[in-house]
Amino acid sequence: MSDLLERLRGRGWRMTAQRRVVAEVLDGDHVHLTADEVHAAAVTRLPEISRATVYNTLGEMVTLGEVIEVATDGRAKRYDPNAHRPHQHLVCGRCGAIRDVHPGGDPLADLPDTERFGFTISNVEVTYRGICPSCASTA
Amino acid sequence: MSDLLERLRGRGWRMTAQRRVVAEVLDGDHVHLTADEVHAAAVTRLPEISRATVYNTLGEMVTLGEVIEVATDGRAKRYDPNAHRPHQHLVCGRCGAIRDVHPGGDPLADLPDTERFGFTISNVEVTYRGICPSCASTA
DNA sequence: ATCCTACAATGGACATTGTCCAAGTCAAGC
DNA sequence: GCTTGACTTGGACAATGTCCATTGTAGGAT
Fold first, then answer.
1. How do residues B91-111 score in pLDDT, each as one tens digit?
2. CATH number for the domain whose boundaries are B3-80
3. What DSSP string runs through A50-116?
């Protein structure tokens, strides 16, 4: 069952075949698909779905706070449905693999007032970069 | 005088008018220009400089480790010449302003081995997001 | 069950950002 | 002042994302 779909339904979202397919494709843990990957997967279930609809739907999910947008590589944005639990990302610089990670500590507490320049800070993103085990073994 | 230019010269870089202009445009603190912004600024000094050259030059500076590439918004990459001193970024979600900040603590130490999944981690990027004072006052 | 209507989907044009390449140009050493 | 290999150019191309007029449809009202 799709948790993501349930959450969206509960918000009075008008449910269409397209939105259902996008939500189903995106559901799960350690999912970090690009918009085009979502589209490609959606097309196998609903061949006539358009790119614009996938972009619109992902954008709405982000606005609703049910999906997080992640920019790990400066190329395409990735969409992470794991929005209900705070987490950070660990990225392999060679193959691009992404894992959700849960660091201890509060990164916000590490930023003293003198370094905040009067900003009201609402969230902190941490990206750990390195090489994953399988890339390391084929160095 | 351009520190960035000095450092590049010291590495045996072949010095051309184009590279000089790009280095001069990019030099300074709290500089976080996109490639196109660099190009626009460069054109005012050297009208015939091409986009390709700006991209090439920025890419080389990044490879040499004299400039850092920052992806704060999933749109265009930004180029930060402040590569000699480790720092993180504070970004205004409304106007896009960026400040360099220097948090205390070591974010790497906050990630336990059990959360590293065998990765060899080489660096950590932290992005603080919020609203800057001038945007807050015109809410 | 059918009708209405506001909201959603479509697809294709357009925008932005970035990469590539063949040909011309030039900095730096001799 | 040559020569040469590295640098620059401009334009084509690629990837990602946005916009909009038109068409379709979900879900409430009748």
1. 998 888 999 999 988 889 999
2. 1.10.10.10
3. -HHHHHHHHHHHHHTTSSEEE-SSSSS-EEE---SS--EEEEETTT--EEEE--SS-GGGGS-GGGS
